[in-house]
Amino acid sequence: MGTVTRGTTNPNRLRRMDRWITATHGAELRRAADSVAVDLGYGAAPWTAVELLHRLRTVAPHARVVGVEIDPARVAAAEPYARAGLVFRHGGFEVPVSPPPSLIRAANVLRQYDEEEVAAVWRRLCARLAPASQDSRGGLLVEGTCDEVGRRHVWVALGPEGPRTVTLATRLGSLDRPSDLAERLPKALIHRNVPGEPVHAFLRDFDRAWAAAAPYASYGARQRWMRAVRDLTADWPVTDGPARWRQGEVTVRWEALAPRT
Fold this sequence. Notes:
It contains 9 helices and 8 strands. The protein is of the alpha/beta class.
């Protein structure tokens, strides 16, 4: 279920997303009795699935990864890369994986879809996640978009209940202003970057905070970013702290940026 993507990918392209996943979802993966992660729509080459297994096992040694592709030829081409803990399967948004996964990562998959289709895809994927319980918030869906070499990346994190947060991540040395990340907004937000929409107001305020933090540039782009994000917290529900800001990230509650209906 779904549409074949262009399939373009590069090694190390999703490093920022993976770094965030291991930092914020690693404990959930360790607690899971059978922590299965899905790399949905990995593309014409399986590099991102291979890398995901390596990165997840730094925090959850028993994690398994299933690469899922709707194009059977891509599944066949990936088979030589299968190994213990890594398999490839034909499928799409139905996510043909058992047990329900602790993680679904869908990077650069929904970019080609219409905005009106996103909510239904999110609901379908969230329904496939491991459910919440007394000891767990449940599985995590991470859906977003990045540039070809992974320097700029924006994603939405969703649980079984729906969207939770939006994260912007960038290589700070390549950044002119925070609103440069607008071109990498996921499909649910990219067409909402217009006056009157929350995401537009957020990027406007971020640019203003970045400009006000210009004196910190003498200490490096990281210090300027951290100061700008700290100023943002006065008006926006930033959910992370300096440890993540230092990585060139900032995470905001979904409700603050969600499109107006």
